[in-house]
Structure formats: C-alpha cells, structure tokens
DNA sequence: CTGTTAGCGCCTTCAA
DNA sequence: TTGAAGGCGCTAACAG
C-alpha cells in the first residue's frame, strides 16, 4: 500500500536510519548532499510518513484534545478556532470533541482520548465534577480547564472574571436607576453560574439592597431554560424592573419568550455575538475575550506538555492556579449606533 | 509507565495472544473462564489498551475526520454534533477540524489527517476546488462531501436541494407581490451559492421577469460581506422591493447594516437558528435539515469504510452520486407567533 | 556523518 | 482453545 521508509532508503541507497533523520521534524547530523538525495527519493516515491508508527515509538501524537460541552455555541467555537490555529503553529493538531453537556459522556470521551494517546487535554467541564479529569491527569497527561472550573481536580485553569463581570453588569443596571433586579438562569453545578450569581449579589449588597428570593430564578444554561425562567418571572405578581441573564443561551431564551408574549424587559447578559444587537431587551453585555482565552489555553497546555516531555515535574501539590481574564462591559447602543458598524 | 498487554498476561498466567483476544473489540475463541481471569487481571492493573499500537497493526484508527470551513457556524456545528454522536455508536471517534475558509489550509489539513491515519473523511469544502480531496481519496481513504460540492473530485456527496430552496423562497416573495427582487451575497466558487442563484433565476424566469443586473449583488459568504452588499444595494437609486440572502451569515450582515442605517427590508434567507426570529427583515427561511445531513453523512462514510475494509472496491469510475436533502420553507411569523414557542 | 540493531505495544498466522 | 513468533513503520542508541 503506502511506501515506507525502507522503500525510500532503498531508492536513495542509504539506511532507514538516515532517512528517518532527514524526515524527522528537525533534521540534523546529515550531509546536505544525502539530505537532498533522500528528499528526492521520498518525493519520487510519493512517500508519506506514518504518524501512527512514529507515535508508537516517540510516545507523542502531537495532538491536543479540546473537550467542550456543546459544539453549537459561538463562544466555545471562537475559543476553539483560535486555539486550533495557534496549536498548529506549534506543530500540534487539535481534536475537538463534544461532551453533549454530560459529565458522564465527558468521562468516557476523556478516557478514550487518553487511550488514543493525545499529548494534552483542554476541557470546558460540563459540570463542576472533575474527579474523572484528575484521573486523566494522574495517567500523566497534562490537563487544563478553560472557562469553567471543576472540583475534585487539582488542575490549572483559565477563566473569565465572572464575578466581576456580573458585579459590573448589575452595577450598571443600578446606575440606571433600577432597584428590583432579577438573576435569571444558572445551573448551580457550573462554576460560571455560581460566580456570576455571586457578583450579582455583591453589587446588590453594596447598594444596600436585600435580594428578594423571588427574583433569583436559577435553573439551566440553555435556551429552553431561559424561555421557561422568563415565563416564571413574568408571572410574578410583582415582576422585576430589570434582570441579569446568566449566559447568552439563557438570554436568548428569555428574549424568545418576550417576543412571543409581546412583552418587553431590560436585560444585562454575557457574551457578544453577531446577533446580540438584534435582541430587543439587551441593555448591557459583559463580553468575554474568547480569542485571548483560546490563545492562553494553547500556550498553557503547550507549556505543560513541554515540561512533561523534558522530564520536569514540579511538585504537583501546591494547588492549581486559575488565571482570570477581564471582561468588557458594553452598552447595547454602542454596538448598533453606527459608530461601530461591525 | 502504562501497563502493557504483557503485564496482564503475566498476572493472569496466560500468553499475550490470549490477552489480546480477550481485549479485542469482539472477543471470540476464548473460554469464559480464561476470559474472566484476564479481565480481572487487566482491571486490577488498571490496564488500558494502547490504541496507537493497535492501529499500527490493524491499520485502522477508528476515527473519521470532519473538515468544516469554520467552527463558529451553527449549521455546520449542528451537522457535526449529530454526526459525532452517531459515529460513536459505531465505535468511531470524530475529529473536527476547521479549514478557516481556505482551500489551501484545507489541503494541508486533509493531507495531514491522512498521514495521521484517519479511516475516513467527511468534508464541507471551502471552495469548489477539489483535486486535493481526490488526492486523499487516491491514497485509499474514503472521502465524502457534505453540504457543498467540489470539482476535480469524483466523490459522493450529501447536500440540500439548494436550487429548489432558492426557487421556493423567490416564488414565495413573488407570491407576496414583490417583483423587483435582489440576490445578495454568494461566493461563486462555492457550489451552494451557484445553486441558490440558479434557483432564484429560475423562479424569476418562470414569472416572466428578466433579472436586472444591478440586483444581482454577489460576493462573499460572511457577515461582513452581507453588510457591504446591503450597503451597495441601498445605494442603488432604484433599490429592490425584496431580497434573497445567499446564506445566514450574509443575511445577518445585511440586517446589521439595516439596523445601523435605520432602514427596513424584506429578506428571504437560508437556515434557521435560535436568533432568526429576531431579525426584523426576515420574511421567509429555507431551513436545511442539519440533523439529517449529519446522520446520512455518518452512515455513508461508515459504509465506504466498511466496504474498503472488507476489500470490496466498486469500479470507482461510474461517477459520484449526490444525495439531495429537502429543505423546508418557513414564514417568519410562524416562528414567533406563539403557536411555536421554541 | 551514517549504518546496525533493537524494540515501541499490539495483533495474527501457524502449530500444538 | 491457547501459545510462540514475527512483524506493522518508525526511532534511537550505539558503533563504526
């Protein structure tokens, strides 16, 4: 079937070792003459190096897996696109895998990815449960968390400053004169939801406002959840003047409900996208920096992989470091007033 | 480091061959007794089979690559999510890779994926150029096209009935009384763009309308392109009464421009998403069936892989078959009138 | 600088 | 049913 290194060696009149040296990622210790000779032979045969065989020997597949809760999520995909691009520059290929928002699935996929020999894993956990991720790390595979944190795992992480984002969002609404503000959506098993709720509460506290229990409408992170929560909120005999949505999906669901009900609301939410300008209720957005997140996830995992390959093992026990990325608060009008066309 | 089959064999007191038999995807020719003995030994050692080694021997990695033009595209990701899910049920893992809308990148990535030994490839081509895909197929790797077709490649494909979709969309607008209809956006090197333009033209012709050259505003498939085209269209001294957008990205860009300009328009476009209900100009949508596309892409590539593995080679020369999936025309109101909440 | 020689971990005839 | 033995294609000492 495919040509092997032996075929090339035979044609070039050298040993397989020499061919291997020439074809290695960094050629060295080979005469320019034999180098070109080998290269010519390889080309004329249409030789392609077999990465499976190489991996078996080198114990490195030059791949990094990125596990996300779902694919149809613009924020995650923006992170992925950037990370994949950057990984390539290091010679790595990114494997993008979905956990379908299930920790069980996540456990299976990560284990299988480990079996397949990925050099490292970057994961956005489906929930805060992270023992299975620690298990992967215990197999000697570098793992880092992105966007969300997880418990039971002593892993480095990169996440937005969610607490501050929600705090600023809420403060902005307070600044506009709204006092009765609701917090809508949020799966309490997901760290971002907890952090955002916490920032929300802090802003209210700072303003001397005691949050009404009826205005904390937790539950879910998906479009359907936002839709359902919104319904509940509006059925409240004394509805809020404004609300903070836990994330873009919930925000979308809320707006969908409002659209169908012909109602209006003032909403502050997370994440921009091409279509947030069209959301009628959207007043403020806390924009996360997906590109920066992808970028730093890449460098961090590459670092870990390199230090593992070079046999350097820091005493893993002094805790995990989480890097916080700043978020930017945007007024909705700024997105659409023509001063910022696209 | 990791335990090997030898460790298990030693502990279980059998040969490596026996262990291999037990651990193979389908165990057979092994006593139930030795089977459990081996399994117990494997478990107690925390043995994990090394897929790299297995692949080198079996010449199968049990992976299928899915190459898409971009990740941040809901339609593509919906297809991906379904396909990935279904592939798992066959024991395959999907590798999702972006070509960044570049045929050059696509060429590199597909070649590299082939080197990495994927068992098959499903690709949404970045453009109509497909020789590099044929090259991959010529290496003996099953390749199929999805959503878009490509030239220079004799590959099976699965795509929506774009011509008919655009035809119906245009007819719907005509039915509403609009006569001067524009076609906006469309990279002519992309098959879907050509097919949709063709359906558009057919509908006009059938209505006895000669399309004005100024109303065919081709160019690009991205948000920015839609934005720019819309600007051009509105600067026309005699602007159209309605328009057909080549795809959702362009549609979005058009609406963004309208929003900034404070203008209105009647638009028919492709693809639904959670946010199409919020697009003010949106009148009709031709909805593609992403789930069905992912599903059939999966079965088709699995078929090809299986027939390759079983050594069955049909005379590849009798052309490629393209399967057309029907699209559904939806009136915008139906999405938001409350009868169809979510 | 180049060649020889062992495997990496697993599968798979071929015998027993 | 089980074991022995020989690779899959490549890399990495170790010699020369």
Task: Set out the fold topology.
The structure is a homodimer of 342-residue chains.
Chain A lengths: L4 H8 L3 H8 L8 H14 L5 H8 L4 E6 L5 H16 L3 E6 L4 H13 L4 E4 L7 H8 L4 E4 L10 E4 L1 H14 L5 E4 L6 H16 L9 E2 L5 H13 L6 E4 L2 H14 L5 E4 L11 E6 L2 H20 L12 E4 L2 E4 H5 L6
Parallel strand pairs in A: 1-2, 1-3, 3-4, 4-5, 5-11, 6-7, 6-8, 8-9, 9-10
Antiparallel strand pairs in A: 10-12
Helix pairs in contact in A: 1-2, 1-3, 2-3, 5-12, 8-9, 10-11
The first copy, chain A, binds a DNA duplex (16 and 16 nucleotides) through helix 2 and helix 4.
Can you describe this structure in just a few lines?
The structure is a homodimer of 342-residue chains. The first copy, chain A, has 13 helices and twelve strands. Chain A has 342 residues and is of the alpha/beta class.
Structural overview:
The structure is a homodimer. The first copy, chain A, has helices at about 5-10, 15-25, 30-45, 50-60, 75-90, 105-115, 130-140, 160-175, 190-205, 225-235, 250-260, 290-310, 330-335, and strands at about 65-70, 95-100, 120-125, 145, 155-160, 180-185, 215, 240-245, 265-270, 280-285, 320-325, 330. The model of chain A is unreliable at about 335-340 (pLDDT under 50). Chain A has three domains: about 5-50, lambda repressor-like DNA-binding domains (434 Repressor (Amino-terminal Domain)); about 60-155 and about 290-325, Response regulator (Rossmann fold), CATH 3.40.50; about 160-290 and about 330-335, 3-Layer(aba) Sandwich (Rossmann fold). In chain A, strand 6, helix 9 and strand 7 form a beta-alpha-beta unit. Chain A has a six-stranded parallel sheet with strand order 2-1-3-4-5-11, with helices on both faces. Chain A has a six-stranded mixed sheet with strand order 7-6-8-9-10-12, sandwiched between helices. The longest helix of chain A is centred in the C-terminal third of the chain and has 20 residues, at about 290-310. Helix content of chain A is about 45%, strand content about 15%. With about 350 residues, chain A is an alpha/beta fold. At the A-B interface, helix 4, helix 5, strand 2, helix 6 and helix 10 of A face helix 4, helix 5, strand 2, helix 6 and helix 10 of B. The structure holds a DNA duplex (16 and 16 nucleotides).
């Amino acid at each position: 079937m495919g040509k092997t290194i032996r075929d090339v060696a035979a044609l070039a009149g050298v040993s397989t070792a020499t061919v291997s040296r020439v074809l290695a990622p960094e050629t060295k210790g080979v005469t320019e003459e034999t180098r070109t000779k080998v290269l010519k032979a390889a080309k004329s045969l249409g030789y392609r190096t077999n990465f499976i065989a190489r991996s078996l020997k080198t114990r490195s597949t030059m791949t990094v897996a990125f596990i996300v809760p779902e694919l149809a999520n613009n924020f995650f995909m923006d992170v992925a696109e950037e990370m994949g691009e950057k990984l390539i520059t290091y010679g790595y290929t990114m494997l993008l895998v979905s956990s379908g928002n299930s920790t069980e699935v996540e456990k299976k996929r990560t284990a299988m990815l480990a079996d397949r020999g990925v050099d490292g894993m970057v994961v956005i956990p489906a929930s805060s449960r992270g023992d299975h991720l620690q298990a992967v790390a215990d197999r000697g595979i570098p793992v880092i968390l992105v966007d969300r944190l997880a418990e039971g795992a002593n892993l480095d992480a990169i996440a937005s400053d969610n607490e501050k984002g929600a705090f600023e969002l809420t403060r902005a609404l307070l600044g506009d004169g709204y006092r009765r503000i609701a917090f809508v959506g949020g799966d309490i098993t997901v760290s971002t939801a907890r952090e955002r709720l916490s920032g929300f509460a802090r802003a209210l506290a700072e303003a001397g406002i005691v949050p009404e229990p009826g205005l904390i409408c937790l539950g879910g992170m998906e479009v359907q959840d936002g839709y359902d929560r919104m319904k509940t909120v509006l059925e409240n005999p004394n509805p809020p003047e404004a609300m903070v949505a836990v994330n873009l999906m919930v925000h979308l669901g809320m707006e969908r409900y409002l659209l169908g009900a012909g109602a209006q609301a003032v909403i502050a939410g997370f994440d921009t996208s091409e279509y947030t300008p069209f959301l009628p209720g959207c007043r403020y957005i806390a924009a996360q920096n997906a590109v920066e997140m992808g970028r730093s996830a890449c460098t961090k995992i590459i670092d870990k992989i390199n230090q593992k390959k070079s046999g350097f093992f820091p005493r893993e026990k002094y805790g995990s470091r989480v890097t916080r990325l700043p978020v930017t608060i945007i007024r909705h009008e700024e997105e659409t007033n023509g001063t910022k066309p696209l």
